[in-house]
Amino acid sequence: MPAQGSEGSFAGVSAWLSQDPDSETFIFRKFNDLSARNILYLQCELLELEEKLKRIDEKVWPNGSIELKDAARTWEELLDQAKRPNSMASEMMTAVTEVREKLKEYHEALVLQKQIAAMHRPRNGALEATRYWLDGGLVPRAGKKPKPKLGGKAKGYLDDGDDLVSLKAPVERDYLSEAVRTYWPGRHDSPSEGRYGIRRHEEQSVTMAVGIISTILAAILLIGAIVGFSYVTAWGAKLGMICAFTTVFALSVGIMTSAKRAEIFAATAAYAAVLVVFVSNGDLSGSQCCPTPGQ
């Protein structure tokens, strides 16, 4: 815990950020511009080293000595000749070492940037709450922060929303989950502690509530359809019910889950197939149990 009265410091800010049970406040800059520039610089250095190796090869093969050509195709010979100072083999070995080190640095930068690019942007609610606390309240149109917790350039590190990344794994972002998060009761930070009543809740409880709601609705759509078919005898009415229930099911899957389009199509087709099979079996059993007169 930070010392009393240290909320407006790096110690206080880091303590507040770490208090979130789901770590959604772990929002930081990606520095995409600097990352791209760094990779460009590394790429230019490698281009120069590539050209340097080509110049060495041009010196070796057309007019180079047999000894130097042996060094160019035999690693052990290259190591031996590279021990001689100011030799062509020494220059070749230096270039090879530089390429190896710079290429490793370049590839590591590419891999790291790929991983960072795959990270998700922070959730709007978490970003707004974190900004609200760090700025000391709502920022007016004039742009002056009321009571920023950090000074210098650090006080505006959350201003560029396009250059932010959340270290928290992405949560479900369907409409139902967002609605539940908005109204879900949580623990409020005490305003007397300088935390402006920020509300916190555990994402696990939201996920559980959404799962229960989705399960209940799925059961209602299936059981309700079956019960409804038992009271309807007209084939046209049954077709209308199949269309209505299938449409509601597709909408519920699209709204209440983060399923992709292909998954929505597959689930809807399976649901419609179940209803069609149930209706068909019901009609067949009815015709067998109630034969027409004269049979």
Description:
Pfam families: DUF6594. Keywords: Membrane, Transmembrane, Transmembrane helix. This is DUF6594 domain-containing protein. Helix 3 (about 65-75) crosses helix 4 (about 75-80). The protein has 10 helices and 4 strands; from the N terminus they run H-E-H-H-H-H-H-E-H-E-E-H-H-H. It folds into 2 domains: about 30-120; about 170-295, no CATH class. The protein is flat and about 100 Å long. It has a two-stranded antiparallel sheet. The chain starts with 9 loop residues before the first helix and ends in a 6-residue tail after the last helix. With about 300 residues, the protein is mainly α.
Residue share in β-strands:
under 5%
Number of helical segments with 4 or more residues: 10
Q: Determine the structural class based on helices, strands and strand pairing.
A: mainly alpha
**Biggest β-sheet: strands ordered side by side in the sheet:** 1-2
Helix content: 55-70%
Shape: flat
* Main beta-sheet annotation: 2 strands, antiparallel
What's the Cα radius of gyration? 33 Å
Query: SSE string, helix = H, strand = E?
Result: HEHHHHHEHEEHHH
Number of strands: 4
Q: What do the pLDDT scores average to?
A: 81
Weakly predicted, low-confidence segments: 287-295
Total count of domains:
2
- End-to-end Cα distance, whole Å, is 88 Å
Organism: Colletotrichum navitas
Transmembrane segments: 205-229, 235-257, 264-282
Domain DUF6594: 12-276
Pfam families: DUF6594
